Model the fold of this input.
Amino acid sequence: MINDPVYGFLTLPSNLLYDLVEHKFFQRLRRIRQLGMGELVYPGATHTRFHHALGALQLMCKALDLLKQKGIEITEQEYEATCVAILLHDIGHGPYSHTLENAIIPNLPHEVLSQLMMQTLNIEFEGKLDMALRIFNNQYPKVFLHQLISSQLDMDRLDYLSRDSFYTGVHEGVVSAERIINMLSVAQNQLVVEEKGIYSIEKFIIARRLMYWQVYLHKTVLASEMLLRQVLKRAKWIMENGGELFATPFMQPFIESTPSIADFEENQEYWLDRFVNLDDSDILVCLKTWQYANDEILSFLCKSLIGRKLPKIVISENKISDQDIEDAKKSIAQKYDFINNEWEYFIQIGFVENHAYNQEYEGIKILRKNGEVCDVTDVSDNYNLTALKKTVRKNYMIRF
Amino acid sequence: MINDPVYGFLTLPSNLLYDLVEHKFFQRLRRIRQLGMGELVYPGATHTRFHHALGALQLMCKALDLLKQKGIEITEQEYEATCVAILLHDIGHGPYSHTLENAIIPNLPHEVLSQLMMQTLNIEFEGKLDMALRIFNNQYPKVFLHQLISSQLDMDRLDYLSRDSFYTGVHEGVVSAERIINMLSVAQNQLVVEEKGIYSIEKFIIARRLMYWQVYLHKTVLASEMLLRQVLKRAKWIMENGGELFATPFMQPFIESTPSIADFEENQEYWLDRFVNLDDSDILVCLKTWQYANDEILSFLCKSLIGRKLPKIVISENKISDQDIEDAKKSIAQKYDFINNEWEYFIQIGFVENHAYNQEYEGIKILRKNGEVCDVTDVSDNYNLTALKKTVRKNYMIRF
Amino acid sequence: MINDPVYGFLTLPSNLLYDLVEHKFFQRLRRIRQLGMGELVYPGATHTRFHHALGALQLMCKALDLLKQKGIEITEQEYEATCVAILLHDIGHGPYSHTLENAIIPNLPHEVLSQLMMQTLNIEFEGKLDMALRIFNNQYPKVFLHQLISSQLDMDRLDYLSRDSFYTGVHEGVVSAERIINMLSVAQNQLVVEEKGIYSIEKFIIARRLMYWQVYLHKTVLASEMLLRQVLKRAKWIMENGGELFATPFMQPFIESTPSIADFEENQEYWLDRFVNLDDSDILVCLKTWQYANDEILSFLCKSLIGRKLPKIVISENKISDQDIEDAKKSIAQKYDFINNEWEYFIQIGFVENHAYNQEYEGIKILRKNGEVCDVTDVSDNYNLTALKKTVRKNYMIRF
Amino acid sequence: MINDPVYGFLTLPSNLLYDLVEHKFFQRLRRIRQLGMGELVYPGATHTRFHHALGALQLMCKALDLLKQKGIEITEQEYEATCVAILLHDIGHGPYSHTLENAIIPNLPHEVLSQLMMQTLNIEFEGKLDMALRIFNNQYPKVFLHQLISSQLDMDRLDYLSRDSFYTGVHEGVVSAERIINMLSVAQNQLVVEEKGIYSIEKFIIARRLMYWQVYLHKTVLASEMLLRQVLKRAKWIMENGGELFATPFMQPFIESTPSIADFEENQEYWLDRFVNLDDSDILVCLKTWQYANDEILSFLCKSLIGRKLPKIVISENKISDQDIEDAKKSIAQKYDFINNEWEYFIQIGFVENHAYNQEYEGIKILRKNGEVCDVTDVSDNYNLTALKKTVRKNYMIRF
Done:
């Protein structure tokens, strides 16, 4: 029984799950913050992927118990396998999660690494993760089990919205996870929500949308994430160009080179060993040390980040105009004489998108009282749900 | 306006306070967890000294506003100075706070370092911290201002009990900070509580006592803290004996040597510069790296800590008997053949004390309806408050 | 200082407000539940108009303090008057509030009665409510003060959504009252919200909409309210037709006759004296007693309500068809042989409307960063706010 | 599934329980407030016995589920019977619960009435309550089931402390019901708490003690309760002495005469029928009406209570001195010339006792790690638990 300020208590439903939690792959998640740079804006948001994974597991147990109560057949083995799959769904995340996903190992998304690590665990646990892997990869006939792990209404999202609201203090994101779970059911082998739950679903989608704007895509968060990525890029560039640079022992190989999937697979022991020792602390120690690096640009970027002197960010519905970019560059060039045309470290143009509800990808299904199953946006009166299907794009210019 | 999941919102009452928060000395506290190893038992307890200091400041503003409303004279300058003092009260804490206080720089308690750092800041801010320093050091005539910062009922305690309960999920520690503050007053230049607040005070003392047993002195926490201290000790021993060991750049000087106060004062720029760059991430990177150290003992200790294979702990009201110690040593010697009589790394005997209420040190004063001021334990009906004055000691043996 | 589980503490900012709270007109609100029949569905929802009025006052103080901090000029007299107006905004509510508004005194809406009672109080308090009355009636130049009391974003709504969510346990209705108030400002003499508050406003409008469907217009609530109204109607009919019926002393005159505004004004002492003694307890005692009345229909209706054997309700997007009504009547006639063509007591056709946001009536104004003031639905990206402007109508048939 | 703001959701575990909740005996509890006059001090405390009984049922289900998980044998029938017993434990409470227990039907405590009503229900439900009655009356071999209903740590207390804290907003009374239940077990046929739960138990006992002083025995509550009892006494006196007085139809018989148990048993249909129609609304309507009674004393008392002009109360550790009583009487006689030596209505001397923990009556048993079972106060280090065994008495004088 583990204390959890969000749900009260967390419990581990089987020995296998207990052993997985004790494993160093999973313990590593204690040292990876859930919201990365989010803590710069929301000082309470220091919670970790470790806690999130345990929370999602807790919700999964509740959901599976409930479906069983409603008469849906779920064997004990399926129960455990689904629990394993949700527990490990984020196992492949590296330091600073999404922020550095493409910066440390450019072509290796965390899903691929999660796969790799789950397979490694499966060997260590002598095949006990077989079914969990099939469910995780949507290769298991009971599709709804996969949907509990990965869909527009999965236990991952239910937990992260609850947990991130709790730790940031942004009450707009609070969702009634318990109420939503109580209204889940299965029809036509699909995870569905009973019709009376429609308002809770609407609230859930809106909460998610608001959390995107207020937390995940908050402009200070965007600016610091961009900065962190540029730091890594610069460090790699220095190494590749024969420079010398301190790095922590486990970070060193990832700065000096960039392994591909093939590298990982061929030389798994080497690379995985290093990767599973990597966490937020390596990044922090590098950042702190590089403040004093010889490379002026790297030193400047690291001092900005550690000292929290972040670049400015302009958000706009329209594309940033060429004129605005020119003006920005001029002012940058004046202030930073060491820039040497390395614009990318000082100015970034781009956009973010917020897709509150995406019907195409594992949409939320409503079970109507007459037995019909339909998409949540097709249930009448929800003008605004229809509105939430649209993707909202915002352009930004981040600049020193 | 900063979101705080505990109090809703935090605000900074003046520009000076804003500038201090922005200062790198204070920003450093973002990287020092409030409860150190507590997170191993309570996964939600990842909050930082940064957040705690802001929270204590928030309570201080409420308390000062309230005292002013009750007609107590507090000038604007005193208001700000008291706020500065509470904001900076923990500024001298190093990585893992209390746990490593004596392990990294043995004879330099954090209070001394806080002093030093506040003085450094005072120079940088051209004397604007003068009054804050006098209040902090209890050299200011209005004694109650100092008592708000440091006494048995100060804003530090009110915040850490609220915050630690919140983040651990241990509801036993919840205190009604708002209610207690509402009942504060000043009499005879002392901070006092109105008589009707007696039950809230009782609850506060008991909450604190329970938090000690359930969180601060939790046996898993004790075991891991002892382990962490032994790691540092071993690392220093290796260095002192001519061994070679990786350390992060800012950790290096503290492993290689042990500066005294005199060193700090004479060579302040050198040592303070290093110290203010040190935080939890340095310790973590060292721990992870030392798992692979040549020294078998160090490697063993680090693997135990990172892999969360903690030593056993026995708690007892009586002193641990010599027989029990002998038995433990025998079993240790059998399991770890590399021990080489270095017992201290494998077994520790000691005790912890919980002193819920200490009348001697800035006790809590009650203002009776008849105007009399007396110690809270002298107000009748509180048999149990009297009981709480006793110190409870528990002996422990921590062993692999 | 009054304990409030929703906000922590409530305080009364002046002696006048204290005296008004102590007045029997206001104390009467202790005996009128905020949600009337809502308690049949949400057993926790037993809170009263008394508590709501105090809560709205609390929010008003926060809002006024904040506007003053932002430099908006509000004199002490205006401050108190606005507080008085919000405290008394519901003073004219009778038993079961909206449910019986047209059933006890058909042509006297509670707003008219509030006016009358505030004027009566103004005489008793020797003109001290003059300015409050002007603000309440939107006759005061600083229009934003009236908007704080009555608009699409007034303190009344902020409190009732927070309070009703809290007591029903319907988390969908939780609004961040504190956050919204922090973002209020005044521009062009209008109450406005700063642009960064747009997401909180969106959340607020949606929360209100969801509370309508889940609580205020919940189908069991609708059915029991309709039933209660029919009981009153039948009782009046019996009296008017020479029947005899028990009623509590203060209810008697309202059952025997139906005073008009003119009656109230001409014979104010008589009618107001009775009205201010009337509350939920009179209705309950009548209902319980009438279970044993000679009139079969009245007895049937009261037994249904007290015994919670409520009529069925069918909700439909389309108008209820004549065929459905005919079928229902046939089945009713078969079950209740004493019906004697008095259909209205056994079947009711009607509709409810949910107008989440009504731009026409004191719409919510956003203050853009460029100083412009515009309606919240005109700020881009809020497709769904636009959607919320539409009125949603649902038809119902309630029948035994 | 019923929304509960305290626990989230409430569910009814069987059809029998559903039918009992629907029964008019139980529905009546909707109209009896849990804290009677408490609402005069804590305006949020309007919750009812109905809600409390459902809450205690919810905790009972959790406790029974947990004990079963721990391997304690509990049959399905025992499960349901224990649930029935806790649901109905307060069924015999009359209007204003404890306050009027001796004032309406002097020699009939609510426990006797609960018995009578449960037996009546048992006949109606054809013996399905047999086992519930045996458990309720401690005549069932598995003693721990009775202890879950009635002991120093029963589900009744766990719920009312949680619920009363929640609705009053007095956070001092918050108990970790979930945590305590998780630590329950059974040893030697006794309900026990695992040793690690000792701090939660300590907190529970202290919370209960604080709730007594701050809520149940709050001095304004005491004064208003005494006043209410005197009102009933006076009304009965008037009737007995041939006076005429309005009363609601169901109140009438209890004002005119005072049935004994024998009366109830002999003429059960008559008396029970009246009793089960009686609730808080009858008292309120009488109080309001009697404000205008001819009897000056009755009218004075009712106006004081409805208008919230309560008598003064003096609390003292020592007995109230004869001199103080004489002085009070003199001042009363001067103010109220109609008193006519009827002192009891104007001045009351008495005492209240707070017995936080009573080892004698179903004390709390701790299951030590060595298997031993002992009283909670015998576990070391709890000096203050020992202190809590003492009864604290406070004397009062309540006077106009």
The two ends of chain D are 48 Å apart (CA to CA).
